[in-house]
Amino acid sequence: MPPHRARKPDTSASRDRAIARGIERWFQASARDLPWRTTPRDGYYALVSEAMLLQTQASRIAERFPPFIQRFPTIESLAEADEHDVLAQWSGLGYYRRAKNLHAAARAVVREHGGIVPRDASALRRLPGVGRYTAGSIASIVYDEPAPIVDGNVARVLLRLDGADLPPTASATIHRLWARAEDLVRAATSPALLNEGLMELGANICTPRSPGCDACPVRSSCVAHREGKQGDIPRPKPRPSQQVVHAASVVMRDAKGRLLVERRGDGGMWAGLWQAPTIEREGKTPTRASIDALTGGGRARRIAEFEHKTTHRIFRFTVYAAPPPKRRRPDQRWVSAAEIEGLALARPQMRILQGSDPVGTNSPTGGGRSGSRG
Known about the structure:
This protein is α+β, with helices and mostly antiparallel strands. The protein has 2 domains: 13-226, Hypothetical protein, domain 2 (Endonuclease III, domain 1, Orthogonal Bundle); 243-353, Nucleoside Triphosphate Pyrophosphohydrolase. It is 41% helix and 12% strand. It has a 4-stranded mixed sheet with strand order 4-1-6-5, with helices on both faces. The chain has a 3-stranded antiparallel sheet with strand order 3-2-7.
């Protein structure tokens, strides 16, 4: 008998058409009701939602999208807004560079395209912060253009469909994925339904662990499912190393109950956002002298500790309370509780400054250690 050979995936045009039809029909019947999925689709809504959805779950964006649109109902209103107002509306979503790029993209659309989000993927890619995936997503979903998309969910679906046990971050794998995505979108009856269906399938059915193959509309075409390899494909990505950053934040109130805050610089993590007076050190704990210096000489007492994780860093926060300083620096200001709500804050500072008892003996969110990601 001839030696057994692994069956090559059938990437014929007829198979691609069958996959595309199956996903399109499934998405029409199963699409989640999300606030940016209007009829007809709106280019501005798509630009905002895609910026929000990068590295954030759709369920969280479904809560944050409506108030953002209520504050900036048109692309012109977003373009005209002050950057600090945009960042304040973005507070808690993380990856604040996305908000700055979205703001810049809105201004470019108003300035260069008369306020109409371009329909061509190449024109979309010239907007600040818009890469190949986002451009393809907007062009296909809003305008039904046959533009391919590949994000983490789509990549997982495509690798499993073809039974491609490849290193997911290798350049050859990425090139293959974009080529396969283009094959499918060109085989589709509706590029809009196909591409959004691919994303939805990866998010809800073809999940990283325990995929719901029984509910998959294209399982009969899936090589990984047929060979029982859906749990092994794609291979796990190498975990990024995380730098440990020790942060000390001091909560100070004046006689009127106002909190002292300062604005971060324009570079680095959480650039331009507001915070309690804070000092950070990579790999080592801030000294007591440096903590006391934040208070203007007042003695600080420790009230809480918690951890905040991002992709590349682990922030270990220690929160202190101290009497108000005799003088504040020019970059600092006193703000009321109501004004805190309108400031652009990163998640850790939301916890520190908006906690139920930030200057008491408990943790700002009720005590104990916890981690968050975003």
